[in-house]
Structure formats: C-alpha cells, structure tokens
Amino acid sequence: MAIEYDGLVTEGLAKQISEKIRAAILDGRLAVDARLPTEEELAARFSVSRPTIREALKRLAAQNLIRSRRGPTGGTFVTRPTREEARASVATAAALLVSMGEFELDDIIEGRSIFEMAACQLAAQRRTDADLEALRIEVEQLSDSTLSDIAFCAADVRFHRALVAAAHNPALDYAAASLLDSLQPVLNLVVYKERDRRSVARELGRLVAALALRDASAASAALTAYLTTLLRQCRDVGETALSARSLEGTHG
Known about the structure:
The chain is mainly alpha-helical.
C-alpha cells in the first residue's frame, strides 16, 4: 500500500491521516478504483483508533475522493470526481473564504476580468449557435422589468457561466469556478440595489451581438463597460457603508 503511515503528531490526527491518503491519491500512488485497507487495518497501521479513521475517511468522502460500497465485495474505494463535483468543491471553498473576508471587492473584480476577458476572446472564435442561444435567454431574463432582485442576480450569474462555457476550454471553466459560482453572487448582493438593470441588459446584449459576429474587440469592449460599472458601484457602496460606520462611531 502506497500510503505513508508514519510522521503523525498528536494534534489533528484525522486531518493528518486524510491528508496522507489524499496525497497518495493525487500523486497517483493510489489509482482510481483502488481499494483502501479496512478501518481496522488503517487504525493499526496509523496506530490510532477506528473513530479517528472514520473521521479521516469522512473528510475524504466530502472531497469526493473516496466512495463506500456495501456487500461481500464492498469496502472503501478511490473515486474520480466529476468536473462538476470538483467545480462545486472549489466554489464552496471560495464562498467560505469570502464569508471570512479574505478577498477585497476590487480584487474579486480584477480576478474576474482576467478570466472573463480570456473567455470572451476564445468565445468569439469558438462559440456555437447553442452558446449564443443560452446567452440570449439570460439577456432576455435580465431585460424583464418584473424580475425579482434574486431572479435578476441569478440570471446575471448564469450569463457569465454561459460566457465562460462558450470558450470551450475545460481548464478555464474550472479555474473560473470560484469567481463565478461564489464571488459573482457576492458582488450582486453588494450592489443589486444600485444597479441600473437596463444598462446591465444593454451591455450584455452588446456583448452577445459581438459574439454573434465573432468580433472579439467589440465583445471585450462591452464586457469592459459592464465590469467598469460594476466596480464603480461596488466602490460607491463601500464608501457609503464606510461613511455610515463613521457616523455611527461619531454618535455612539
């Protein structure tokens, strides 16, 4: 078995064990569909209790790295996460970091602009008719004045996911997961009251029209206008919140 069993310290044993098994999976020492030793065997080899092993295995299962199967041929096996499962895992981690205040709004938008500009350039070359239809559906949603704030924000997120998907680059799609699935909703929550919906629909409509013509320059210009407005609104909201806190401190 290609797992390193030594080198543990007494603190956080389950975490350390899960990391050792995870390392063996990620570097190929444990192949997909390989069967892990039983809980009892792992407990003996790591010199820990079975509950500690169970906790370590739960951590790995939460990362979609292992699966359990019951029956005579059952056990715990190495699994291969699907792209969507991996994407969801990245997005969840990013959402946690956002909730802890690890990212500034300017940094989020700057990171987004890098990914989306790259996607925009590729989409102008590679987009299909189906990609255009998916984007147009979301622009129509965004143009609906009766849409609730939540539905508007959701349509906005779906548009940008569809834009990255239109680049037809799986690596780019995966890399953009945290920015689009977690950070874009956060931006929407910050600025939704300040957004001019007609302006958003107009800018994104221009982007789709440019993609239809395979005009990368015009598509990038439309995306730049969208992101520039979003950044300005985020900064305005931030300054307003800062002023409100200052007033509270003055009157407190």
